[in-house]
Structures are given as structure tokens and as C-alpha cells.
Structure prediction request, 362 residues.
Amino acid sequence: MKLPLPSLLLALLVAVSVAAPASARESSRKPAAKPASSAAAKAKRSFKAEVKPEPRLRAKAAGKLAGGKGLRRAAVLGAAGVAAVAAAEPLRASFGQMQGLHANNDPLELKSSVALVIDQDTNEVLFSKNPDAVLPIASITKLMTALVVVEARQSLDEVLTVTQDDIDTEKGSRSRLAVGTQLTRREMLHLALMSSENRAANTLGRHYPGGLVAAVAAMNRRADSLGMRDTQFAEPTGLSSRNQSSAQDLAKLVREAHHVPLLREFSTSQETQVAVGKRVMQFHTTNGLVRSPNWDIGLQKTGYISEAGRCLVMQAQLAGRKLIMVLLDSAGKYSRIGDAERLRRWLDNAPIAVGGARRPVS
Prediction:
């Protein structure tokens, strides 16, 4: 027997209302409390990341499923519509979580599933956790992008233009660099390294000799020349989960990039201003540790996409040594910073043997 339209809508409304209150409650809890949280809560967390979707895509992903508006919207969408919105939600388990890497404990109880600390001069391993795991590296990619761009010796004063080709169609991420923005190659490099600007990085790749395809090929050749056998690049921003590497490989990249003064300067800059048309815009670092008096950082880069988790690589002076630190697949917005601080305190307090050697931790 077919139900009249009002009865059908009422049935849909009742069915959705059973799940909606739980979703509304879940959106106010910490992410770790309920892994199977609602689509709205997951979307809200992911929008606070370095990859921030455009407002119109945010509305699609979140679906406004929590609260009274969500009930009305769900009643209109029906069960199939609600499922479609949930399927469009970009946040999912990281590759490290899917591989069970977070189940591997370490003495410092780090939140990162991968960690590596080595002496820059001697290559001595001081701390190690899943160092050979191959995972997406998100915006750590931009470090290699910047390296090959600088090594191409193109004019840093050449003006580059952001075009439609630089809009992120992979994650729908937001950028303050509107189509038509014109900045020098130097400014694009600065924003890509300091503020992790995706459109700046893609613009740099497009203007590489031979174009974007040639830039990615150069990135892979450079990785091979550094002995980064577990590394591959598919594009210059890090938005693709196909950009993958291991902690061991990334330590080699950090060491090489640290040799380039411009990369050291731009990656550790706290803020900068650029003229965009008639406006002067201010950009800030994505790594608050560069402002900390407890850290002497020579080079750094952060990264985040849901497949990669929170990532961080640094060269820093700690405990009287030049060290390279790699943290991948950290769960939680501030957990990579917390992990770096745990490592710093351990390095400061751990006993040092004669000659400066310290027993490695794995």
C-alpha cells in the first residue's frame, strides 16, 4: 500500500531523528572519544586543517546534519540523499591507521605513528619508530618542489600568475591567492614553504622549465639522486595521497634542503607581507615552534591531508647537536607539536655518553 506524501515525509523525519541527536552530541566531543563520529563532526574537524575546503564545498561535505536544520534537510534529502552526503565527507582513516602503525608503542608514547631523530653530521639514529613505513607526506612535498625550483636557477624576480589550473580539484582546499594574483617566484616560494600555500606551489610547478609534468619528473629524479628509494611524487603541492615517502627518505631530503640558504630562510620565517593587487596581505607560518625560544630551527615544513595525518620535518639545534626530526601520521591537530616537544625534552634530559653519543631508542 502506498503511503500518502505527508505520511512518507513524516516517516523519513522520524527515521532521521533517531540518529540526529547522537550526531549533534558527537560534534561537541573530542575526536578521540568517538572514532565513529557523525559526518558533520568529522567535517568540522577536517576544516580546521591546513587543507581548508572552499565554503561551498564545506556546506556540501558537512550537510548541516546536526540540529533542527539537519532534520529538515534530511527529510527533504531522504535516506539516499543522507548517504550521498556522508559518502562525500573527505575525512577518513589515515594510511598509517589502516596499516595499524599506531598500535606500535614507543617509550615516549608519541601520537605520531612514524618518528625518526638522527644526528645530521654523523647519521646516528637517536630515536626511531616505524622509520621505513611508506606513507603519504602531504605538504612536506613542497620542500622537494622548492628544492628543484631553486636548483633550476630561474629568475626569482620573474612575476608568476595564478590561474584556474592552480585551483585544487583534489581536496577542494581554500587559498588566499585568487585567480589572477601576480607574485614573484621568490614570493611564491616563500608562501609555499612558510604558509604551505597550495596555489603558490602549483604555480611554481607550472612555471618550471617544461611545465608541471617536467617539474614532477625533476622531483622524482632528485629523490632518486638522494637515495630516496621509497619516495614518489605525483604533483607539487602534497594534496595527492600518491605523494609518498618514509622517514628515512625524508631525513635525506631535509639534510639536502638545509644546504640551501633560501629554503632555510623561507621555511623558518614567522610571517611576511605581499602586495596582491591594491591590497597588502599578511601570511604566517604553519609551525608555531619557529616562534618558541626553546627551539633553534634551521629548516622546517608541516603537512596535512586526512590520508597522511599531521606531519612535520625539521632541522634543529638540540642538546648541543644538529639534529633532523621527522614525524608522520600524527593524530590530532596539535599532536605533532606535542610529539616534537616530548622529543626535545627527552634529548635535553637523556644522559650523554663520552663523545656525545646517546643510546638509540627504537
